[in-house]
Amino acid sequence: MENAGFQRLIKLRQYMKEEGISLFLILHSDAHMSEYVSEADSDIEYLTGFSGENCTVAVTQTESHLWTDGRFFIQAEKEMLGSGTDLFRSGEDGVPKVEEFLKSHVNEGETVSCDGRRLSRKLFKKYDEAIKEKNGIFDTSSNVMDKVFSNRPKLPSEKLFILKDEFSGKSASDKLSDVRKHMKEKKADIFFLSSLCDIAWLLNLRGNDIPCTPVFYSFLLLSMDEGKLFINEEAVSKEIRDYLEGLNIKLCPYESVYDALSEDRGKAVLLDSDTVNERIYESFGEGTNFIEEINCTEVMKAVKNETEIKNTKKAHVIDAVAMCRFLYEIKTGKIDIEKEDEYTIGERLYRLREEGEGYIEPSFPTIAAYGENAALMHYTATPEMKSPLQKRGFLLVDSGGTYFTGTTDITRTIALGELTKKEREDFTLVLKSSLRLMRARFLDGTTGQNLDILARGVMWERGLDYKCGTGHGVGHVLAVHEGPNSIRWKIENAPDFTAHPLKPGMITTDEPGLYFEGEYGIRIENELLCVEDIKNEYGRYYSFENITLVPIDLDAIEPSMLTEEEKDQLNAYHEEVRKTIAPLLNEDEAKWLSEATRAVE
Amino acid sequence: MENAGFQRLIKLRQYMKEEGISLFLILHSDAHMSEYVSEADSDIEYLTGFSGENCTVAVTQTESHLWTDGRFFIQAEKEMLGSGTDLFRSGEDGVPKVEEFLKSHVNEGETVSCDGRRLSRKLFKKYDEAIKEKNGIFDTSSNVMDKVFSNRPKLPSEKLFILKDEFSGKSASDKLSDVRKHMKEKKADIFFLSSLCDIAWLLNLRGNDIPCTPVFYSFLLLSMDEGKLFINEEAVSKEIRDYLEGLNIKLCPYESVYDALSEDRGKAVLLDSDTVNERIYESFGEGTNFIEEINCTEVMKAVKNETEIKNTKKAHVIDAVAMCRFLYEIKTGKIDIEKEDEYTIGERLYRLREEGEGYIEPSFPTIAAYGENAALMHYTATPEMKSPLQKRGFLLVDSGGTYFTGTTDITRTIALGELTKKEREDFTLVLKSSLRLMRARFLDGTTGQNLDILARGVMWERGLDYKCGTGHGVGHVLAVHEGPNSIRWKIENAPDFTAHPLKPGMITTDEPGLYFEGEYGIRIENELLCVEDIKNEYGRYYSFENITLVPIDLDAIEPSMLTEEEKDQLNAYHEEVRKTIAPLLNEDEAKWLSEATRAVE
Fold first, then answer.
1. Could you give the angle at the alpha carbon of A466 between the alpha carbons of A317 and A41, nearest 5°?
2. Which residue of chain A comes nearest to B442, CA vs CA?
3. B372: Cβ–Cβ under 8 A, 6 or more apart, which residues?
4. Residues of chain B found within 8 Å of residue A539, distances taken between Cβ atoms
5. Phi and psi for B413 in degrees, rounded to 5?
6. DSSP code of B135?
7. Are A274 and A292 in contact (CB under 8 A)?
8. Distance CA B579, CA B46 (A)
9. Which of A395, A444, A504, A536 has the greatest number of CB atoms lying within 10 Å of its CB?
10. Is A375 on the interface with B (CB under 8 A)?
11. H or E segment at B177?
C-alpha cells in the first residue's frame, strides 16, 4: 500500500531548504493544546499517515521521526509504513526525548522551526533551551507545513448551545465570580483561557467543533469586570449573544486574538503555560507580568457538584441499558456473530446508544477490536479496515456516550465463544487488578500516583504490565479525558507535572488491561467517583463509588483465582447492576441480565 | 517544671525590638543543612526545650510557634511546656505553612530576620516571595540569636580518618573523575558542595563532628583540575593532608569560605539550592552563573557499589548477633526485666553492639520505649526521664550501629509478657504491612511514592495510619537517613521535590507502625536492598532483598490473621535468620534462636 506521506515529506524538505530550516517540528495539537484535534490541525496524519494522539514529528533533510506512547506503537508502525517517517517508541531504552534529539541533531547556529500556535509556552521553553545549547535559532513564526498541507480544511465553527443550570448545577455567573475571586488572590488584572474544555465549562456553553468533544474554538480573556470571547461569529446565535451580554462578555473575531492582546501589555496576566500557545505569549508582548499556574478552572471543573454527580449517575444508567442490550444480543445469539465484523458491531452499539434519553454524541470513537486487534490499545475499525468476528476468543469494546446528563466511558471484554485457559486466567488477572483499585480507601492528599500500584501490582507480581495509565479523569458533557486527576504510576514530564490529589467529586476511570501483540487484548474499564469515607483522628478518608453498571463477562473468569473478598466484591457489584438495570429492560433482556450477574462461588 | 526557654524568649524579643525585627525565624539546621545538628547549632532546643528534628520556629512580639511533623507531636508538646512557644502540627487541617504564616503576620514594610547561614537558597526564595507580597524586608545578615545564645558551644572539629578502598569500594580519585565528567556535561567551572555526607563520601573521609554521623564540618569547592577543602586545621593530620594533596585538594580555614568565594564570581557554579545556604550564594555574588540541581553525588552515593553491598551485609550479620543476644537475654529471663528501665536496657544494647567487629558508634541514639512511650515515635529515654519495664505489653527498640563495613537501622517490638488481643492484632497488622512492601516487584522507574501504599494500605483499609514515611535511604558509614530514595506517599514540599526512582544498589528501610497515644506503639523495621529481578518485554523489574536478619517476635502475632502467602514469607525469612546467625551464637543462644524462628502454621 502506498503512503501519501512519502511525497509530502519530500515537498516539506524542499520548502525547509528554501527557508533555511534545518529541523522542522510538528506537534499533534491545535492553538488550544487540545488532545483531539479537528482535521484543520491534522498535520501529522497528513504527513505520516498516523492517526493516533500524543505524538510529535521531527524532520531533517535526512531523517524523519515520530514519537508516540505505548498505546500507539503497533498502530503507528502499521499506519506509517512507507511514509518515510520512523517510529520512536517514547519511554523505551535508548529512545531520545524530543529535547535530547534536538541537542544531538542541531548544529551550531542552525534554525529549528515550528508553528508557534501549536506549541505551548512550557514546551517552547524546554525546546528552546535545548536548541540554545548549540546557539541554534528557534523560529516559531514560519509554518512551511501550510504550504505542504495546501488543501487544509477550515476550522469548524458549529452553533453553540447553553448547558442549562439544571444540567451544570452552577450558573456561569457564579463560576465567573469564583474565578475572579481567585484572580484577586493572585493579584491578576487578566485571566487568559485558551483550553476549550475550560472555556465551555466556565461559560456553561457547548459546541460541536471537535469530534466527540462538545467544545467550540475560542479564546477567553477575562478582566475583573468584563470579558472578551474570541470566536467565529457564525457559531453564535442571537440567544447566545444575549446570554453572553448578560455575563458582560463581548464577542470578538477568533482570528483577531493575536492582534488584540497587545492592548493589555504591562498588565498582570494569569495563565497556564501548559495550555497557552507561544504566539499568544508573544502577542501580549514584553513588559507583561505573566502569572503562571495550572488553570484554576481545571480543578474547579474536575470536582463535580451535586447536580453533575446526580446527572452523571443518570447518564450511566442510560448508558448501561444500551450496553446491556448490546451484550444481550451478542451473548444470546440474537445477532449472528459470524456475520458481523468489528465495524458493523460498533455501528450496532452506536445505534443502541442513540436511543438513550438526552444522547448527544459518542464520547469518543468506539473501539471494537477482535482478537489480536485488541492488543492495539487504541485501534479503531473502519469500513475499509476491519476484522470479521468468530465464535471464539475475545471482543474488546471500549466506548461511551455524551448525554446532556453526563459523559461515560466503559470497556468490556466479551468472550465470543471458547476461550483458552490462558485467556481465562488473563481475564481474571485484569478483573482482580480492577477490583483491587476499586476497593481502595485512602487519606486526603492521596494522588493517582500513590494508588496506581493497587491495580498494576497484580500484573507486576507476575512479570506483566500494561503500557498506559490505569485511569484518567472524565469530563461532564466535555472531554472524556480530563485532568488534573488521573491514576498513573509515572508522571512523564516530571518534575513539571504535579499529580493532583483525588478529591470527593472527581470521577476517574479504572481500566487495567493485558495486551499480547499478535494474540489478544483484555481491558475492563469502570468509572469511579471519589467519595467521602470515614473521618477520624488520622484524617479524612476517601473511597470510590463505582458508577458504571454493566456486567463483567462471567464466562471469561477462572473463579479459583479469586479470593473470597474478590468474589464478594464482584457479586455485590453484579447485584447492584441487576437491581438497577433489570427494571429498565424487556423481559428477555432482564432474564439474560439475571444470569449474567449470577453470584460466583 | 520550669522551662528555661521562657526567659530566653523574652530576651530574644527585646533584641528583636532593638534591631527593628518584627518576625524572627529559626531553622533547625546548620550551615550545611544537616538533619542532625551539633550543640553549636541547637538554637531551637535552647529557645523552646524541643530536642527533636525537622522543626522551624517563628517569633513575633506576641506569638511564638514551632512547626514539626507527626513523629514529634507528643514529644514537642511535652518538652515545650512552659516555654512560651506553641506547637504547630505540620500537615494538619488549619495549620498554616511557614510561608502562609509569614504572609498573614508580616505587615507592610516590616523586617523579617533569619540567620542566612542556616537557610538554604531554596527556602530563602520561598520565604522571600511570601514576605515580598507585603513589601517586607528579608534580612539574612543579622543574627540576634547569637546574643541570646551567648554561651553557644564551639563547632567541633574532631580528627578525620580515611575510609579505605576495601570499605568504600571506589577510590576518591575515581569518584572525583565521575563528578568532573558530570561537571563537563553541565558546562560548570566549579562544583560547590556543602552537604557533609556528600563531602565525606566523595573524599572517602570520615570524621566525628556530629553525634552518630561520622562526618566533619567542611565545604568543598572543586574546579576541573583542583579543589579547596574549607575545614578547621586541627581536624587534619599529616596523613590526611598528604592524602588530600594527592587528590590536588588544598586546605583552607573553615570560616574563610564566605570571603573566598568572590574569587570565582562570574564563573559557572554547579550547586544544589536545597543544601547550599543563602550566605554562600551571596558570597559568590552577582554575575555568577549558578547551575542548580540536586547534588550529583547524592544519587552516586545512594547506589551502593558491590564492595559496599558486600560489606553492608557483613555489618548486618554483626549487628544481628548483638540484637539476637539482646532479645535472648530479654525473652529468656536472663535479665530481670522488672529491675530494668528504658535507659538501662538501651545501655545494655549499646554494650552488646560495641563487641561487634569494626564498630564505630551508634548510627543514632537508641530508642527503647516501653508502653505508651513508644507512641512517641522518636522518644529517647535519658537517665533522668525513663520508664521502668514490666512483664507485660510491648518494648519498642529502634537502634543501629555504624561499623567500618556499613550502617544499620533496625526496629523490633518485643512482647515482655502478656499481651491483649488488640495488641496482638495490631502487631500482626504491622507485620502484614511490612511483609507486603518487602515482597514487591516493580518496573524500573518506580519511586517510593508508588510503593508506599503497599505497606500503608494495610492500615488505611482499617481506618488506621502512621504519621510518617514508610522508609528512608540508609547511608554507608554515613548518615542513617539518606536521600534521594525513600518510601513515602506524600512529598511534603511538592512540587519542588521529585521522588527519585529506586535503583538496584539503593538501601531503604521498611518500617510501618501503629501508634496509640497513651497506650502503646509498634514498629517493625527491616532494611531492603533494591536488586535486579526479571527482565522481559515489559522492561527491567526490580525487587527487594531483606538484609536485616533478626527474628520478629512470634509471641506477639495472631497467626489466624496471616494469609498462607504471608506465613510462607515469614517462615522463609526466619529460616534465613536462623541459618545465618545461629552459627555465630553460643549454644544456649542458638537454641533460643531456633525456637524464636520456628515456623508459623
1. 75
2. A460
3. B517, B518, B519, B520, B521
4. 93, 465
5. -110, 125
6. T
7. no
8. 49
9. A395
10. no
11. helix B172-185
What is the value of pTM for the model shown? 0.90
Tell me which of A100-109, A377-386, B47-56, B240-249 is least confident.
Answer: A377-386
d(CA A101, CA A103): 5
Amino acid at A211: P
Looking at residue A291, its amino acid is I
Task: Give yes or no for B519 touching A (CB within 8 A).
Answer: no
Which contacts of B493-501 are long-range, i.e. CB under 8 A and separated by 24 or more positions? B494/A498, B495/A495, B495/A498, B496/B122, B496/B274, B498/A494, B498/A495, B499/B447, B499/B448, B499/B449, B500/B299, B500/B302, B500/B447, B501/B444, B501/B445, B501/B446, B501/B447
The dihedral built from the CA positions of residue A556, A562, A564 and A569, taken in this order, carries a sign that is negative
Phi, psi of B86 (to 5 degrees): -100, 160
Which grid coordinates are listed for A567? 468474589
- Amino acid letter, residue B341: D
| Residue contact A453–B454, C-beta within 8 A | yes
Per the CB < 8 Å rule, is A465 touching B451?
no
Residues in a beta bridge with A27: A56
The reply to whether residue B450 touches residue A449, judged by beta carbons under 8 angstroms, is: yes
Q: CB-side exposure of B560: number of CA atoms within 13 Å?
A: 3
Structure-block grid coordinates of residue A366: 468506539
Contacts of A445 in chain B (CB under 8 A): 489-490
Pick the residue from chain A with its C-alpha nearest to B487.
Answer: A450
Q: Which residues contact B586 (CB under 8 A, 6 or more apart)?
A: none
Quick one: pLDDT band at residue B323, thresholds 50, 70, 90? very high
Nearest to B463 among A449, A453, A534 (CB): A534
pLDDT digits (tens, 9 = 90+) for B163-172: 999 999 999 9
- Report pLDDT for B1: 54
Distance, in Å, from the CA atom of A170 to the CA atom of A384, rounded to the nearest integer, reads: 45
Supply the pLDDT for residue A175.
98
Distance CA B580, CA B454 (A): 28
What is the structure's pLDDT at A495? 37
Q: Which of chain B's residues have a Cβ under 8 Å away from the Cβ of A447?
A: 449
Distance in Å, alpha carbon of B495 to nearest chain A alpha carbon: 6
Distance CA B80, CA B3 (A): 7
Beta bridge partners, A221, equal A192, A228
Q: What strands lie across the sheet with A410-415, from one edge to the other?
A: A367-370, A394-399, A410-415
Amino acid at B107: N
Cβ(A115)–Cβ(A143) below 8 Å = yes
| Gap between the Cα atoms of B346 and B352, Å rounded | 10
Chain B residues inside the 8 Å CB shell of A440 = 453, 457, 460
Q: Which residues are paired to A66 by β-bridges? A: A57, A87
Task: State chain B's maximal CA–CA distance in angstroms.
Answer: 75
Name residues of chain A where pLDDT drops below 50.
Answer: 493-497
User: A594 Cβ partners below 8 Å, 6+ apart?
Assistant: A578, A582
Joined grid coordinates for residue A473: 479523569
pLDDT in tens, B264-321: 988 999 999 999 999 999 999 988 999 999 999 999 999 999 999 999 999 999 999 9
Rg, Å, chain B Cα set: 25
Instruction: Please answer yes or no on whether A441 and B451 come within 8 Å at the CB atom.
Output: no
Packing angle, helices B587-596 and B306-331, rounded to 10: 90
Longest Cα–Cα distance in chain A: 75
Contact B446 A541 (CB under 8 A): no
